[in-house]
Predict the structure.
Amino acid sequence: MSSLHLQSILDSALDALVTIDSSGSIVEFNAVAERMFNYQRTDVIGQQMVDLIVPPELRADHAAGMKKYQQTGEGPVLNQRIRITAQRSNGDVFPIELAIVPFQNEGDEMFTATIRDMTETVEREHRLEASIKREILLRRELDHRVKNNLGQILVMCRQAMSRSTVDLQNFEDLSNRVIAMATIHDLFGSMSPKGIALSELVLRGCAPYLLSPEQLEVAGPTLYMPAKTAMTFSVVINELATNAAKHGALREEGGRIQVDWEVDGDILFTWSEHTSDPIETEVKPSFGFQLLDSMIPYELGGSIEYVFEPAGFRFKAVVPGIAFESTS
């Protein structure tokens, strides 16, 4: 292969290619390297690479790495891709991705560096990082304001309760709903990248309505929900707990609720109430049960069924497993 043919191949590469010998002198410098570092190939051949494209603060590390390779045949940055900085002819320092491969050429030790300019990539990363920080700041501000608003609503409810006799139960129900909303809001505010744990959502959603912790039993494998699924389940659990406090297991000390789920492709979710006194089995459709009828089927593509029995209320839902897969 002629030297002209070889040079054409090197110049057609997408990345800068710089080859040096064991003394650190440049023996090859392709067209991309010329444009990247603003040097002419004819001007750099035979010169020390470290003096031209390595920033001053990294030159001692480069010399130490070369010395170690000569002594041991090993180098800390060889045969791998690393992020580091380089220097242009005008002294500007910029980020690069670097891969150095040693090889033998007619008995001489040589090193070829493949160099990619990462300036635009790093700028995009910085913009993304700044965007994420702004989003976190806005979410914290929104979280703070929502908590304040919910707190103010709760204070007004309690003030109204202290002055009311006729609507006392309605104000108490509203207060419990506001507390439940605030509790679930806290959970969403601290949501991990994996999502929200179903067990935690059930526990927090029921907590404002429980007369004692022993009234609730939760069992099931660890399941995390993305935001949309968690939002739907928070509404469902709130409605179930509200109904239990008004008409079912949570209206009496001896009432119990069992919540469990299992995974069989789909997620099978069951809410079972057990009461010591018989409950009303002829229940007129309410807005709450209209929500139960619509939330899981229409929001998550699942199905539900529920039944009122004298011993307690039972709710079952089948939710496609894909609804529990995070898209983040």
Notes: Residues 3-117 form a domain with the Beta-Lactamase fold (CATH 3.30.450.20). The longest strand covers residues 93-105. The chain has a mean pLDDT of 81.
